[in-house]
Amino acid sequence: METLAAPADGRSMRGQRARAAVLTACRELMCAGDFRPPVVAIADRADCSVRTVFQHFKTAEAVHLEAIDDQPTRELMVAHVLGVASTNAVETIAIARAIVLGRAT
Fold first, then answer.
1. 3-state helix, strand, coil in the chain (%, to 5)
2. Is residue 37, in this structure, part of any structural domain at all?
3. pLDDT of residue 50
4. Most CB atoms within 10 A, among 21, 51, 61, 104?
5. Contact between residue 40 and residue 50 where contact means Cβ atoms under 8 Å apart
6. Which pLDDT belongs to residue 67?
7. Which pTM does this prediction carry?
8. What are residue 68's phi and psi, to 5 degrees?
9. How many other CB atoms sit within 10 Å of the CB of residue 87?
């Protein structure tokens, strides 16, 4: 027997759009050179409240870490910090995480 997914209601769809807007805003700020943008800046850019950001993410660090799941964002950050693009995907992830966590030197 096949199970059909329940249709999404308006509230859950708005929540999904808000979460996507927060991540997009964070990625845009990161690509502009602010690698650990404050939640207030993310919320302003996403056109939502700080409360909305924290409804979807427990901490600012959680937003930042999820934002760098996006390969182009990671690559741009690493190229900005190193002055050259990295061709090693594992190295790029490690460097981007270090930048977001404040451990890059």
1. 65, 0, 35
2. yes
3. 97
4. 21
5. yes
6. 96
7. 0.84
8. -80, 5
9. 8
